[in-house]
Structure prediction request, 138 residues.
Amino acid sequence: MGMQVSITINFSHEYSPLDVLKIILNNGWDYHFENRVTYLSLNDIDDYNWQEIELNAFNVKGFMDSHDFMNKIGLVIVYNNESGGEVIIYPGFLIFSLSINRKYLIGKKIPDFNWYLNRMADFLECIKYTSIECEAIT
Prediction:
């Protein structure tokens, strides 16, 4: 099994996962990678059975409209079609699993968390959070 790498952001109060996703998408992140969209269906309670669909068949407005104000949302996000992974947003926190073209420190097999946090900086300035946890499990 390979390395598991993630960033967890704990919010200082509850936010609508839908609002959090909109902020992320308005700050440089995209919901598609290589013309595909990967997401958790609204009915996926705890199975985490990711669904994949062609970009031209995905209705992002319909996806967002199907979620109630405080429903968790799961979606693969990427920055500049370069690197990203699965993000699951709950009212109190989000978990970002870094799984697509993971960035490493130059010449090392150590995840470059700074690369991701730099690209999340505008998002982080829009919310209030209590902690950011960067984790790599080998």
User: Anything to note?
Assistant: The first helix runs from residue 17 to 25.
